[in-house]
Amino acid sequence: MSDLPQYVPDESKSDYARMKGLVDFLSAYIEHYHGGWARLLEFDGKTVVVEMGGACVGCPLSLHTLRGWIEGTIRQFFPDIEKVVGVEASSPQPPSTEAGG
């Protein structure tokens, strides 16, 4: 049995809230182990847009993180997703730690 925390979706919440919770969960892992972060920018039920920052900015493996880790996990919980798009953050800091944010 793994000691890693598991994501458990709250079925009482909206799809958007569950998607945000999942991306936030993945971001905590990415930040802790790799120094990067991810943030949900858009979700319309079919397309997910994720901003990636921190150590992910300019990292040659960020596409693998997006496709293998983020998209792969999203599809486990949201199998009807058609597309996951990653965009590089304009700032390396997560939005919650930026000045005035």
List the helices and strands and how they pair.
Blueprint (H helix, E strand, L loop, with lengths): L14 H20 L1 E8 L3 E8 L7 H16 L5 E6 L13
Parallel strand pairs: 2-3
Antiparallel strand pairs: 1-2
3D architecture notes:
The chain has 101 residues and is α+β, with helices and mostly antiparallel strands. It has a single domain, classed as Fe-S cluster assembly (FSCA) (GMP Synthetase, Chain A, domain 3, 2-Layer Sandwich). The chain is built from two helices and three strands; from the N terminus they run H-E-E-H-E. The protein has a three-stranded mixed beta sheet. Strand 2, helix 2 (62-77) and strand 3 form a beta-alpha-beta unit.
At CATH level 2, the architecture is 2-Layer Sandwich
CATH fold group: GMP Synthetase, Chain A, domain 3
How would a textbook summarize the main sheet?
Answer: 3 strands, mixed
Order of helices and strands: HEEHE
Q: What percentage of residues falls in helices of 4 or more residues? A: 25-40%
Full CATH superfamily name: Fe-S cluster assembly (FSCA)
Classify the oligomer. single chain
The rounded Rg comes to: 13 Å
In short:
With 101 residues, the chain is of the alpha+beta class. It is built from two helices and three strands.
For this entry, give a set of tags.
2 helices, disordered C terminus, globular, GMP Synthetase, Chain A, domain 3, alpha+beta, 101 residues, 3 strands, 3-stranded mixed beta sheet
